[in-house]
């Protein structure tokens, strides 16, 4: 961690003590310590998701579980778009932090906030207006529709809180602080589980109560995050004068955020369409997918942490013109994911069935067996997905947004092909095979892209 730097030099940034300069020191060590709070936070988030699913299943039954599960892909789309937009905006902050450019950094923070606010208005309005048609498009069963719509309406109304929480976390991570967002996530998750139990249990609010619990906990965390930034991080504060930038600056920042959001959205649109084909199979398979997917996402958590870390690491070093460090960071991140994959494999082939029973609260063997099949096909294929996620995020941090975006488009096309042509014929087996196949295809694509941009992994003065 860095103490405050000498601020007598023109343009130098007055840095808080809780920031991390990733342009010096061991890439492996820096990535490990930066990624660990993200990893713990993502694990905690998955535990919350598991607890949320388990509470819904145990307190409200399989129908409520299906109502929440039927909206899972759409909810994931919303949160990932918010995450992508704000991470993209924050890459500008990270790049200028690495370059130690105080003026441009404050301008970047200012416009990250403004563009995030505009995006929030557009997202909230459009999703609320089209929420029922979207659920119809997802082929949500008639006996599940009312509960799913009730749950989704509350979640959509809370998009401003989701965006605010994500932006604050992204800004803190951009200056190398991944610990403070973890603290807020711990608070939010614990509060969420408590409210889940109260609203779905004693207060008998059904699935709507689960949604209210989520929105409330995120809102409180967003307020605490704002207070923390205003009090403790002068480098993230800005004034009216920081709004004065060129139209090129605004367009470039917007495109970076949009490309990362589209990268998530395109991927999730494929997931939404695939979810529609799962919904058409009936509530038993929806419940199986909820259980299997929840546990699989737990095993995918290093990808989120290491991908975000790779983007921040690449962005800071790219801004500091230390490009050769980026390749070392990528190799270190892939190695870390490999260690986790071994543990995931052991769990999948030993105790996964018992965990699925606990997650779903279901005694239906069809639900458990299909959830287990999903895991035993997906988890062995994590290695190509790990390389894909880490390299794709690193390229984003290096200002290469088109190749990662095209890669996500390939994933979407793959999921659409499976949803439209294969799931109706082969059933849930095709659902299980879908993602591993698309991972391999996209892995090959992103490696070709990395080879094309290989010159950018060398320092400018050595070209």
From TrEMBL:
Basic and acidic residues: compositionally biased ranges: 1-11
Region (Disordered): 1-22
Alphabetical UniProt keywords: Cell membrane, Membrane, Transmembrane, Transmembrane helix, Transport
Topology term for the membrane: Multi-pass membrane protein
Transmembrane regions: 30-48, 68-89, 109-129, 149-167, 179-199, 211-233, 254-278, 298-318, 330-352, 372-391, 412-431, 437-457
Cell membrane as UniProt keyword: yes
Molecular functions (GO terms): antiporter activity; xenobiotic transmembrane transporter activity
Any GO CC annotation of this UniProt entry: plasma membrane
Record localization: Cell membrane
Domain of life (superkingdom): Bacteria
UniProt name for this protein: MATE family efflux transporter
């Amino acid at each position: 961690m860095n103490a405050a730097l000498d601020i007598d030099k023109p343009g130098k940034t007055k840095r808080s003590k809780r920031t991390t300069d990733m342009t010096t020191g061991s890439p492996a060590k820096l990535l490990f310590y930066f990624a660990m709070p993200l990893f713990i936070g993502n694990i905690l988030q998955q535990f919350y998701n598991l607890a949320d699913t388990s509470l819904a299943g145990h307190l409200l039954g399989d129908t409520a579980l299906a109502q929440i599960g039927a909206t899972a892909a759409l909810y994931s789309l919303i949160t990932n778009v918010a995450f992508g937009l704000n991470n993209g905006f924050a890459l500008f902050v990270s790049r200028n932090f690495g370059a130690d450019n105080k003026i441009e950094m404050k301008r970047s923070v200012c416009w990250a906030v403004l563009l995030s606010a505009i995006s929030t208005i557009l997202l909230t309005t459009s999703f609320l207006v089209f929420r029922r048609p979207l659920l119809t498009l997802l082929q949500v069963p008639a006996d599940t529709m009312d509960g799913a719509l009730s749950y989704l309406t509350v979640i959509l109304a809370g998009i401003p809180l989701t965006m605010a929480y994500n932006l604050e976390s992204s800004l803190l991570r951009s200056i190398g602080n991944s610990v403070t967002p973890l603290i807020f996530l711990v608070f939010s998750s614990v509060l969420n589980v408590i409210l889940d139990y109260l609203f779905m249990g004693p207060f008998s609010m059904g699935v709507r109560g689960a949604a209210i619990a989520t929105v409330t906990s995120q809102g409180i965390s967003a307020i605490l995050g704002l207070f923390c930034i205003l009090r403790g991080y002068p480098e993230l504060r800005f004034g009216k004068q920081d709004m004065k930038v060129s139209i090129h600056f605004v367009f470039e920042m917007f495109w970076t955020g949009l490309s990362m959001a589209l990268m998530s959205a395109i991927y999730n649109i494929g997931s939404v369409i695939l979810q529609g084909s799962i919904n058409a199979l009936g509530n038993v398979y929806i419940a199986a997918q909820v259980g299997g997917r929840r546990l699989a996402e737990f095993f995918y958590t290093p990808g989120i942490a290491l991908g975000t870390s790779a983007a921040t690491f690449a962005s800071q070093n790219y801004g500091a013109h230390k490009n050769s460090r980026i390749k070392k960071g990528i190799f270190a991140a892939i190695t870390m994911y490999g260690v986790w994959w071994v543990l995931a494999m052991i769990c999948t082939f030993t105790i996964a069935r018992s965990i699925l029973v606990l997650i779903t609260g279901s005694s239906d063997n069809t639900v458990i067996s299909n959830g287990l099949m999903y895991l035993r096909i997906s988890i062995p294929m994590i290695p190509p997905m790990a390389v894909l996620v880490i390299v794709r995020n690193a390229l984003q941090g290096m200002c290469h947004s088109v190749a990662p975006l095209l890669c996500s488009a390939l994933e979407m096309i793959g999921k659409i092909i499976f949803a439209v042509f294969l799931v109706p014929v082969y059933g849930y087996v095709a659902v299980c095979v879908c993602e591993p196949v698309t991972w391999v295809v996209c892995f090959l694509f992103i490696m070709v892209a990395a080879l094309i941009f290989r010159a950018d992994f060398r320092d400018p003065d050595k070209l």
